[in-house]
Design brief:
The protein is mainly alpha-helical. Helix content is about 80%, strand content about 0%. It is built from 18 helices and no strands.
């Protein structure tokens, strides 16, 4: 009988301790006390972050598994896709009202940097020249332009006529001869124009750095003062939405290619090899996160989250679920029982 009484007292005390600890954490996590609690927690974490290496908390296989799940396998829900379409259209309509100019998005300093880098890559014009010079598709395009130009611009002095238009045989033969000569001339003109266009394209790709720079600067001067809506008005809100959908559909297909998956996973491997022996503090610093940033962001979102948890009665059951297993374990109850018996 005494043993059962002690067991009952043990269970009651364990339950009381659980309720007290739940209440304690509720106060600690309250909006009034949370700034101090989070400040202490983050300070403690940052103090020890310099002692823990990245490879001690995560390995390469874990990182790659996360990337595989969220980059290669995860599918966006229909609701989110609908949201992307909605936000794309609204952003477009909002941007159309803005007086912002192209030069507000690309400063002169940025333009100079990009231009300088582009001019440094001297191998690109040579590659482009070789492609334009040897590509059958480019030659066919030049031929098409030449043919279309002749058909639209060259007057047809001689046209095929019916036999009834001629009173004498020699008239018919003369007309036929003239028509054949016109066809030969047109064919030679076509070939010459196509060759000329092809030649000009290949020469244009090998402009000197000075000429190329001058050309790009003239184009920039023509565009820099234009308002963004002048470019965007060529599209409709539906076009913008469909572009987003097309990009997503393309990415879904692209991410399944073995080449792209190998490339991304190799990038993860390079990242891990570079940072694995650095401390968590160094990794956070490399990313640009400081202790102050962590505290600021924690406190930015925390009050609203806590309000929602309290309003829906989530916080207390959550704490109960976290702490109850300890107080219900046989080891804890045996320890309490032992203290009662001493």
């Amino acid at each position: 009988m005494t043993e059962q009484k002690n067991s009952s007292k043990t269970t009651i005390l364990a339950q009381a301790l659980l309720l007290e600890q739940v209440e304690f954490f509720k106060k600690q996590l309250s909006i009034e006390n949370s700034p101090i609690y989070f400040q202490q927690f983050i300070q403690l974490f940052m103090q020890h972050a310099d002692e823990i290496k990245l490879h001690e908390v995560v390995d390469l296989e874990q990182l790659q598994a996360v990337v595989k799940r969220y980059a290669f396998e995860m599918q966006l829900g229909a609701g989110l896709l609908e949201f992307i379409g909605e936000i794309a259209q609204r952003i477009y309509l909002s941007a159309m009202k803005s007086p912002i100019q192209l030069q507000d998005l690309v400063s002169d300093h940025q333009f100079e940097m990009w231009l300088s880098k582009f001019l440094e890559m001297e191998h690109i014009p040579h590659y482009l020249n070789e492609f334009l010079r040897t590509s059958p598709s480019v030659q066919q395009l030049c031929q098409y332009i030449a043919t279309s130009t002749l058909e639209q611009k060259l007057p047809k002095f001689l046209t095929a006529s019916t036999v009834n238009d001629y009173h004498f045989e020699w008239q018919h033969k003369l007309k036929k001869f003239s028509f054949l000569q016109q066809q030969r001339i047109e064919h030679k003109l076509e070939t010459w124009i196509a060759s000329f266009i092809h030649e000009q394209l290949t020469e244009l790709s090998l402009l000197s750095a000075e000429d190329l720079e001058s050309l790009i600067r003239h184009v920039w001067e023509d565009l820099r003062h234009k308002k963004m809506y002048e470019f965007m008005k060529q599209l409709t809100p539906l076009d913008v939405e469909e572009f987003f959908v097309l990009i997503y559909e393309y990415w879904k297909e692209l991410r399944q290619s073995q080449f792209m998956q190998d490339l991304i996973l190799y990038g993860v491997e390079v990242f891990y090899d570079f940072y694995k022996d650095q401390s968590l503090f160094e990794v956070l610093s490399e990313i640009g996160l400081t202790e102050s940033d962590l505290q600021t962001e924690a406190l930015r979102f925390y009050p609203k989250v806590m309000d929602a948890f309290n309003e829906h009665g989530i916080l207390e059951p959550l704490l109960q679920a976290l702490l109850a297993p300890f107080y219900q374990s046989s080891k804890t109850l045996d320890m309490i029982e032992k203290h009662f018996n001493e």
